[in-house]
Amino acid sequence: RLGRGSGVGLPGCGIMMDDDEKPKARKDTQKLDTLDDSGNFMQTRLRGAVHEKGFWHRYVHIWLLDMPNAAVMMQQRAASKKTFGGMWNCCTGHVLEGEPSLLNAQKAIEEDFKVSYAESDFHFVFSCKDVAHTGGLTL
């Protein structure tokens, strides 16, 4: 329920709707690396257990930017989502077991917005440690 995020900026713009992608059961069996309070690898756990027990883990936020037009591509999460339902956000994704953040950022963009970008189009912007509260959960 706790996470460590990375922000990545990309060129692009527009508004997208989240179509409530993969079934929950499939997502809960994804393997994520869990971290200690300092961000060091501890062990791999299933995503469902990571969220249920509140382990620190990595995820990415990808901001698609159209700098000349001062626009940002956003998506509205489906109202049925367990966390942050109906809210607007950037593209996000969990970093899977043993994988680099960049690879997961590319996968998230392709899955959510159906567009592909070369690795060279991505620019690391920041890393942060974050705790969020939504729907009675601490993420």
What is the number of strand segments?
11
Distance between the termini: 3 Å
Largest sheet: 9 strands, mixed
Helical residue percent band: 10-25%
Number of helical stretches of at least 4 residues: 3
Structural class: alpha+beta
Give the topology string: H per helix, E per strand: EEHEEHEEEEHEEE
Mean pLDDT: 81
Unreliable runs: 1-21
Amount of beta strand: 35-45%
Q: What is the radius of gyration computed over CA atoms, rounded to a whole number of angstroms?
A: 15 Å
Oligomer: single chain
Secondary structure layout plus pairing:
Blueprint lengths: L2 E9 L3 E3 L6 H5 L2 E5 L5 E6 H7 L2 E11 L4 E6 L11 E2 L1 E4 L6 H13 L9 E8 L2 E2 L2 E2 L1
Parallel strand pairs: 1-5, 2-6
Antiparallel strand pairs: 1-9, 3-4, 3-5, 5-6, 5-8, 6-7, 10-11
Report a brief summary of the structure.
The protein has helices at residues 24-28, 47-53, 101-113; strands at 3-11, 15-17, 31-35, 41-46, 56-66, 71-76, 88-89, 91-94, 123-130, 133-134, 137-138. By secondary structure, the protein is α+β, with helices and mostly antiparallel strands.
What do these coordinates show?
Mean pLDDT is 81; it is low at 1-21. The radius of gyration is 15 Å and the shape is globular. By secondary structure, it is α+β, with helices and mostly antiparallel strands. The protein has three helices and eleven strands, in the order E-E-H-E-E-H-E-E-E-E-H-E-E-E. The strands form two sheets. Strands 1, 2, 3, 4, 5, 6, 7, 8 and 9 form a nine-stranded mixed beta sheet that branches. A two-stranded antiparallel sheet has the order 10-11.
